[in-house]
Structures are given as C-alpha cells and as structure tokens.
Amino acid sequence: MKYAYYPGCSLHSTATEYEETTRTVCATLGVELAEIPDWNCCGATSAHATNHLLSLALPARDLAKAEQMGLDVVAPCAACYNRMAQTIHETKDNEVLRHKVSQVIGAEYQGTVKAKSLLEVLAADIGPKVVEAKVQKPLKGLKVAAYYGCLLVRPPAVTGWDDAENPQSMERLMTALGAETVDWSHKTECCGASLTISRTDIVAKLTHDILDAAKAAGADAIVCACPMCQANLDGRQGLVEKTYKTQYHLPVFYFTQLMSLAFGKEPYKLGFARHSIDPRELLHSKEIA
Amino acid sequence: MEMEVLNLTAVGPAGAAFAAQVGAEAGTDVFSCYQCGKCSAGCPISYAMDYQPRQIMRLVQLGLKDEALKSSTIWLCASCATCTTRCPREVEIATVMDTLRAMARREGYPYKERNIAAFHRAFLNAVAGGGRAYELGMILSYKMATFELIKDIDLGLTWLRQGKLKFFPERIHGAAAVRDIFDKVREIERKEVAAQREGRPVAHEGTEGHS
C-alpha cells in the first residue's frame, strides 16, 4: 500500500511527534509514504475565510503533484485532509472550476486522486485486525477518550468515511491496542482551532468543556488525530485550569503515539517530552512505559 | 434587552441581489432555511456571537447586507461545520459564513473581530512568502499588528524550548509558484469586483460544484 504523503506545516513544527510516529506506524504496518515533493501549505482556515478560489488553489497544487505520482494522498492533519477533500469535492463535477483552478496554479489539475486522513487509512484500509497482530505491549488498563474534533468527519458530504456524530474508527484502533475507550459526549465538538491566538478566551471555554466531559467519562487521557486539537487540549490545558480554577491533568496523545507504544517502540522516541501535560507519569503508573 | 429594529422597507432590489449573490457564491439555497435553529443550538461559539447562525441566515434572506457583513458572527465562526452537518434543509451554513467573510473583506467592511482578521492575514502572508506556514513569524507579525505583545509568552517560550516553534521558516523551491497563486487570485478578484461595480454579471462557478 503506497500513498502520496502530505505532512502539512504543523507536522514540521508544533506536531513533530505526530510526524515521527506517523512514519513509525506506517513502516510497521507496511504503508509506504512517498512525500509529495516541494509541497505547499493547504491554506487552512485562513485561506477559506478569505478567498474561495485561493482555498481551492493551494491544495490543488499539491493534489496535481500527487496526480503526477499516480497516488492517492494521505494527510495526518485533520485540517489539511479536510481542505484537500473539500477541493476534490467541489471540483469533482465542475469542469469550469477545475479549469480555473488549473490556470491559477499553472499546472493541470484533473481531479483523479483521492485524499484520505491517516486515521481512515489505518482504521479502515489496514483495519484493527492487522493492527492487533502487530501489538507487542498491550495498553492494558489505559482508559482513553477518542477525540475527533470537527474536520475529520465533517461535513459528511465531503468526508463521509465515518459517522459525523458518533464516529468509531479511533475506538476500534484503541481497542485493538488493548486500551479501553470511554463513551462520551464531546468527541466531535470543536476546540476552536485557529481562534487559539486571536480569541484565546473562546478556545479556553471550548477546551474546558471538552476536558470536563472527558474527565467526567472517566478517561485517563485523550487521544486525537489533529495537531490543532492536540495543541489546544494539551498546550492550553494549563490556562484552562487557571481560568476555571480546576484540575484535569489529562495527557493528550496522537493516536500514532499510542500505536507506536503498543507496537513496542521505545517510549523515549515518541515525543512525550514535548507535551505540556507530560504523559509519562500516567504510562508508568499503568506499567505501560 | 431592547429589541433591535431593522428597516425592511428600505432593503429593496439590492437586498434581493445580495441574497442571490450569497447563494450563488456559497453554492447553496439560502431560501431553504426555515429557521428551526438547529444550527444555532449546535454551534459551540454561538454564545459569543452578536447574531446566532440562524439569524445570519434570516438576514441574508431578507437582504440585510450591512447587518450580516458587520456582524461578529462571520468572524467568530470556527468553520467546524456542525451547522451544515445537522441542517435538516441541507443548507451549507458554514460555507455561507465563508462567503460572507470573503465578501466583507472584498468590499472593505470594517471587521468586527479585528484580531481574527489580523490572524488570517499574518497566516496567509507567511504562506505567500515561503510556501508554508511559519508559526513563529506569523505570531510575531500578528503581535505587531494587534499590540498583543505579552499574551501567550509563556506558552511561546515553552514551545520554543520544546522545539515546537522553529526560528526559521521552511522555504520551498516552488515559493515563487505559490506567490504566483496569490497574485493570480488577487487579479481575478480585482476583475470580478470591478465587473460587479459596473453592474456586469459575475460568473460563480461554485454553484454546481456543491452537492
């Protein structure tokens, strides 16, 4: 199984542990990643909040490169994935728009490749059975709240690979690793994402609600598949605790970190030291790491 | 709270044209909305908005352009698409918010949420410059624009120490090609705005693309 790999900007900066463990997990499961040469930023929220054509053209330049490689795209970042899927969706049956986009990017974009999130590839294409067979160190006794946020599963007309209100892919993967998952209310609530810098108060409120719900459901930790979700839930947790005079101490993992751990990889190679809420104490207490 | 009075008789044909334009650009039927309020009940940020998403839809239907484009709602919307997902009439509300934001910017409306607009500008300037987002540079230029100099310094320093923020941007070989995308988009937009001012029809190829 081979994909055109689109890391996206966050995986080269705030989410390097997601990038490293993505490569580890894919290598273990035989998913070959061919990085799109000289890829550019997808434009994220800022592009589609500013100009519709720009929001299609930026991902289209990357998609056109993937077309030349003849490979479907896999993106670990939920936002990058969503922007690519959106571009494919909007241009699919619209030749005029596809032509306009091609002119803007100075290359022919035909719309022949698909874009998938890494979670979809690992949970649906590879599947929990294959994952389970690779587990060397089951995550016994670890109770996680699987958090999808907004962009992985919404809007369903664009994404459509898991339920938009109650997705289960990540739960199936976590169960395959030997972890326990909790049923909870906020798995697809939004963390506020890019408002984190401009309206930190809103992100603190939304993050507080999510952390509160995870804690109430009895989770030891949250597991996610998006660099913005991780940055907000982990990086802003201290601020939330201070603002709302409460204590959570909930580590926030990337699902690929927990997969790597269960596959028997050395814990010190998984980027735990780069978390704001250090997860190592929890992992020690469960005798997982 | 005193009820706001909106003058509907003054709206006229310009209002109808506005509603039609929003629908065409967003590729969704704004008149399908029957005001059930499901979008607003599910919106995680509605508590902070001056108009609920449902009310924005009604403003659009009524052609109350100024009220819609001057709202804080269009900027606060985080594009999480809970509204679009749950709308029983399949109105793409999150896309309507995108359209209204783009329109407000294009037509020079004052931003109700200046910091959010400043963030988007800082983000896109970084991408236009080197082809990829550059967090540290983006944050610094955002701070210069908003004078929010002290805020988040502790998290910023932690992230620098952890290597999560890089001191230098990643500049791709195709940076000029990406710059070119921005220039071409701006040129197309300039022509479309001019055509609109002169009353010539603007083709919105977004229409059929949405399903």
Q: Would you kindly provide a written description of the structure presented here, covering whatever features stand out?
A:
The complex is a heterodimer of chains A (289) and B (211). Chain A has 289 residues and is an alpha/beta fold. Chain A has 2 domains: 2-118, Glutathione S-transferase Yfyf (Class Pi), Chain A, domain 2 (Up-down Bundle); 135-285, 3-Layer(aba) Sandwich (Rossmann fold). In chain A, 47% of the residues lie in helices and 10% in strands. Chain A has a 4-stranded parallel β-sheet with strand order 2-1-3-4, sandwiched between helices. In chain A, helix 1 (16-29) crosses helix 13, helix 3 crosses helix 5 (95-105) and helix 6 packs across helix 8 (169-176). The relative contact order of chain A is 0.14. Chain B is mainly alpha-helical and 211 residues long. Chain B folds into 2 domains: 13-112, no CATH class; 114-186, no CATH class. Chain B is 58% helix and 0% strand. Chain B has helices at 12-26, 38-42, 53-62, 65-69, 73-76, 82-86, 93-106, 114-130, 135-146, 153-161, 175-197, 206-209. The longest helix of chain B has 23 residues, at 175-197. Chain B is globular, with a radius of gyration of 19 Å. Residues 207-211 of chain B have low confidence and may be disordered. The chains are: A alpha/beta (289), B mainly alpha (211). The interface between A and B is large, with 71 and 69 residues.
Outline the fold blueprint.
The complex is a heterodimer of chains A (289) and B (211).
Chain A: E1 2-5, H1 16-29, E2 32-35, H2 44-48, H3 52-69, E3 73-75, H4 78-91, H5 95-105, E4 115-117, H6 118-126, H7 128-133, E5 143-147, H8 169-176, E6 180-181, H9 195-198, H10 200-216, E7 221-224, H11 227-235, H12 237-243, E8 252-254, H13 255-262, H14 280-285
Parallel strand pairs in A: 1-2, 1-3, 3-4, 5-6, 5-7, 7-8
Chain B: H1 12-26, H2 38-42, H3 53-62, H4 65-69, H5 73-76, H6 82-86, H7 93-106, H8 114-130, H9 135-146, H10 153-161, H11 175-197, H12 206-209
